[in-house]
Amino acid sequence: MCSERVKLYGAWASPFSRRVEIALNLKGIPYDYIEEDLRNKSPDLLRYNPVHKKVPVLVHNDRPIVESQVILEYVDETWPSHSIIPQDPHDRAMARFWAKFIDDKCVISICTALFWSRGEEQRKAFEEAKENLEFLEKELEGKKFFGGERFGFVDIVANVIAIWVAAFQEATGKEVLTEKKYPCLFKWAQEYTSCNIILKETSPPRDRLVAFYKAHVEAADASD
Amino acid sequence: MAEKGEVKLLGAWPSPFVMRPRIALNLKSIEYDFIEETMQPKSDLLLKSNPVYKKIPVLLHHDKPICESLIIVQYIDEVWSSGPSILPSDPYDRAIQRFWAAYIDDKWFPSLSGIAKAQGEEAKAAAIEQVREGLALLEEAFGKCSQGKDFFGGENIGYLDIALGCYLGWLRVSEKMNSVKLLDEAKTPGLTAWADKFCAHDAVKGVMPETDKLMEFAKIIMARFQAAAAAATPAK
Questions:
Q1: Is the model's pLDDT at B229 over the cut of 50?
Q2: Cis peptide before B57 (omega within 30 of 0)
Q3: pLDDT > 70: what percent of chain B?
Q4: B103 falls in which pLDDT band (50, 70, 90)?
Q5: DSSP of B152-219, one letter per residue?
Q6: Is residue B154 over pLDDT 80?
Q7: Residues of A in contact with B67 (CB under 8 A)
Q8: Of the residues A4, B115, B175, B222, which has the fewest C-beta atoms closer than 10 A?
Q9: Would you say domain B91-212 falls under CATH 1.20.1050.10?
Q10: Mutation choice for B interface testing from A67, A72, A109 by most B CBs within 10 A
Q11: What's the pLDDT at B234?
Q12: How far is A78 from chain B (nearest CA, A)?
């Protein structure tokens, strides 16, 4: 078992770095955590991730791995106990598909609707966000987790839906993920931090997260 | 291997994304039915098989759809595991290839498309420069991954070769249409040599469209795009 010299460069408010914390904790892998100030990135971060200059960065035996989903697959392959990604090739393909959908489409449409757009563009963004959430709702129907009976890869990647979307909504005063429209997704999100102590421990404090995004909204409004 | 009708691929000849699973299936010597999608309008089969994106490629294996080109390539690698490996076996090497494949799709290819979309000489020059910067990074990655061999995958074509190589047709179109060299023996010698070997590979040459044919197709697309933009612009 190669559990020495694991370092994680992350940021408390980043859902991407929190994903890696979830995976490492679920597998019981000891690691050093380094909190990055993203307004003042450390020389180490810039050295380990020169292409994107972002968190998370996992450093294992002095070799950096970047991009949260790439890191999750690496962690699962290196420490196979308590597996995150399904074994069956079709199930693996579906897990990768939904994880990619969440990051490439879902999150972007939600952020565009809640933060980044106004007027007609915002109306369209809301429509797109709703459509995307409907796909997730349908995928979750009849299941305890996206991974079926077990919390898995898609559930980890969907941390942003479970925790951050609620904070975005409170910070902006706008809603997109409602219990009425998406009962399965809403219930899954509500129970997210209570279904496993590790999820509770690796989640940022709700008030702090809301305050963080409220500050962003105020700064953006001030510069309009 | 695969029974008749077991494997189908919905696609279209000009699409670099469709090329990816085709190369993967060829590497594994898997026979498949290629169903050419006209895309205008999209077929019922496509809409039913890929309701989320409504895009090609879609692999149908025993009629179960798999979508997203690189996810399909990984699926092919895992299902037909007795054939030549597409992804390396070491987790770190796999992570490096996945990283660069994501970079190519998320950053580099949009910069290549950016050349065609650029308005005016200055914007075009800036777009070209961005593509070249990306290629410089990929040249370095090629050096590390290939370790002196012909491909990112080493002796044989692998995941990252497929991820980048599928765009070579469109890269050549961009070079011709803008009279520029993007791949350059002086600046990107590794990638320049790699590009020729990739295109000549048995698994690739039957599915890589000819540059001239792609160029004709590109002109039709651009004409449609410009007509739509003109129609959307209010009359003065």
A1: yes
A2: yes
A3: 98
A4: very high
A5: TTBSS--HHHHHHHTTHHHHHHHHHHHT--SS-TTT-HHHHHHHHHHHHSHHHHTTSPPHHHHHHHHH
A6: yes
A7: 97
A8: A4
A9: yes
A10: A67
A11: 66
A12: 6
Q: Which residue of B has its CA nearest to A49?
A: B99
Report, as an integer, the average pLDDT of B103-127.
Answer: 94
Q: What is the mean pLDDT of residues B119-139?
A: 96
Q: Which CATH class is domain B7-79?
A: alpha beta
Task: Provide the pLDDT for residue B236.
Answer: 56
Residue B223: pLDDT above 80? Answer: yes
Give residues with Cβ within 8 angstroms of B108, minimum separation 6.
Answer: B131, B134, B135, B138
Q: Which residues of B touch A93 (CB under 8 A)?
A: 66, 71-72, 74-75
Q: Does B99 sit within 8 Å of A77, measured CB to CB?
A: no
Look at residues B100, B109, B201, B185 and name the one whose alpha carbon lies nearest to residue B150: B201
Question: Which pLDDT score, from 0 to 100, does residue A3 have?
Answer: 46
Nearest residue on chain A to B96, alpha-carbon basis: A65
Alpha-carbon gap, residue B235 to B135, rounded angstroms: 41
Nearest chain B residue to A136 by CA distance is: B52
Q: Is the ipTM of this complex over 0.90?
A: yes
Give the integer Cα–Cα distance in Å for B178 and B181.
Answer: 9
Task: Tell me the domain boundaries of chain B.
Answer: 7-79, 91-212
| Residue contacts between A and B (CB atoms, under 8 Å) | 54
Residue A215: exposure state from Cβ atoms within 10 A (0-12, 13-18, ≥19): exposed
End-to-end Cα spacing for chain B: 63
Nearest CA in chain B to A128: B52
Q: Is B102 on the interface with A (CB under 8 A)?
A: yes
With 0-12 / 13-18 / 19 or more C-beta atoms within 10 angstroms meaning exposed / middle / buried, residue B183 is: buried
**Tens-digit pLDDT profile for residues B44-66:** 999 999 999 999 999 999 999 99
Q: What is the pLDDT of residues A101-114, one digit of tens each?
A: 999 999 999 999 99
Identify all chain A residues contacting B66, using CB atoms and an 8 Å cutoff.
90, 93, 97
Which of B:171-230 have CB within 8 Å of A?
A: none
How high does pLDDT run on average in chain B?
Answer: 94
Which positions of chain A have pLDDT values less than 70? Answer: 1-4, 224
Shortest CB distance from A93 goes to which of B51, B71, B103? B71
Chain B contact set for A101 (CB, 8 A): 52
CB within 8 Å: A96 and B68: yes
The reply to whether B91-212 shares the fold of B7-79 is no
pTM: 0.95
